[in-house]
Amino acid sequence: xxxxxxxSTSPMIVVANRLPFIxxxxxxxxxxxxxxxxxxxxxxxxxxxxxxxxLWVGWPGVHLEDGIVEIPESDPEDKSPTAGLKSxxxxxxxxxxxxxxxxxxGCCNACFWPLFHSMPDRAVFQGDKWxxxxxxxxxxxxxxxxxxxxxxxxxxxxxxxxxLHDYHLMLAANHIRAxxxxxxxxxKLAFFLHxxxxxxxxxxxxxxxxELLQGILGCDSIGFHIEDYCLNFIDCCKRRxxxxxxxxxxxxxHNMRTVSVNHxxxxxxxxxxxxxxxxxxxxxxxxxxxxxxxxxxxLDYTKGLVHRIKAFERLLEKYPEHRNNVTFLxxxxxxxxxxxxxxxxxxxxxxxxxxxxxxxxxxxxxxIRYIYGCVSQDQLAxxxxxxxxxxxxxxxxxxxxxxxxxxxxxxxEPGVLLLSPFAxxxxxxHEALLVNPYETNEFAxxxxxxxxxxKDERELRMRQLRRREKHLDVNFWLRSFLKSVDCLADSNRSxxxxxxx
Length: 501
Ligand code: ADQ
Description:
The structure is a single chain. By secondary structure, this protein is of the alpha/beta class. The protein has helices at 40-51, 97-116, 127-154, 172-183, 200-203, 209-216, 227-241, 270-279, 305-318, 340-360, 377-386, 402-409, 440-451, 455-471, 474-493; strands spanning 12-18, 21-25, 32-36, 55-59, 90-92, 161-165, 188-192, 221-224, 244-246, 251-254, 257-263, 291-298, 326-333, 368-372, 389-392, 416-419, 433-434. It has a 9-stranded mixed beta sheet, sandwiched between helices. A 6-stranded parallel beta sheet has the order 14-13-12-15-16-17, with helices on both faces. It is globular and about 70 Å long. The structure holds adenosine-5'-diphosphate-glucose (ADQ). Adenosine-5'-diphosphate-glucose is lined by residues 40, 194-195, 266, 296-298, 331, 333, 374-375, 380, 397-402, 405.
């Protein structure tokens, strides 16, 4: 069930690296089951796929070589957003293990992830991995075209809306477009990037940057979280490909088509988090005696975890009055655990936390509580609600949903949000305390300011943050997207597709 009904006219085909659930074998009876992934994207988009009779194309999380041959139906008890998604609406992409590894780890994670987060020194550029990326994008495209044929057979007059997601699929659009044009299948093609789109100075480091930009331009409509990413992309198209562009109206002309570039800030199912917070178990009984600083992240080098712990250490050195009553709770979800860099980061963090705890712990108090694992949504909501300060300080982040989840869950005593200006969320959550994570002393000062902020000020800031996030929730994002695609359909039907100079 969508949180608010969203009426889309076209059947939607979502194409993402992953299906909206993972398929695994029930250890007890060996039966195939769906394991839910509760991301914002799945929550928002899966109901629209269900409602419009659309399809979801993605990798099922296992290789068919592993013996998984079919997509199971959802469990009758299933209340997740994908419950209504029939197995016939799911198109699994089967990829050979080695090709998948080269595409996913070799290209997406080792190259695009650091590069797009403006950390080029970490990026590895390898021609063979790029070849695997191209192959996999072609495979995704072929299955998407097959999905279009299926939908067209059922209702020939519908124009399917194909929505490609993220940096894994930047080259699929042109393959889909070419095949559909050849068969006379009318479609709409859109793309959304969940991570930052960096400046031309960074993009030009990628040896095949022209192919990449042309790949994205294969869509009719391209979405980024914030305006800066839109302008970066437009700038790259102009400088690298010589496209005619209109920065004001966010248009790029390419191959006799006009592509629209849209600023679509993603968000969360706000009301669902409010409900969760209202019934979540109590974590902090008395805030006057116990203050919780909270961090919730995937364990990733872009999230700035090491910088954050160092700033907390500095806080305890400079302001000893916080010892014994302030605890830093860091929840870190294991991520890309088979990659060396992530293993090294985990080790560095383990050591740092150990050394801070060793330095300051007393018989009854340890400064840092560290959970390395996934926590339930109820538990997460309880942490968000009871935290005095939520520390969201990535070195770079497309948007960051944790900042928004924290704000939604602040249903009792108002806390303070500390936010990095290098997260997309920093662009609009103006009432947060902004902190540059690279400057340890200043970071410690701002931690202290957050912990000692008067209630009036906390209330004022949180009220405004909550008002905005409630309004600009994930349904707003989805509606804005659907509107941007419909507008595009209208303008492309008009006589002139060429930009005014
Ligand atoms: P991520 O990099 O994964 O997403 P983020 O936006 O913060 O980052 O989302 C993380 C999600 O994981 C949140 O919904 C959070 O609740 C959940 N989570 C984190 N730790 C958890 C834990 N220990 N247990 C359970 N759940 C946990 C990418 C981009 C972001 C962008 C999103 C959406 O990198 O910038 O905001 O996509 O577009």
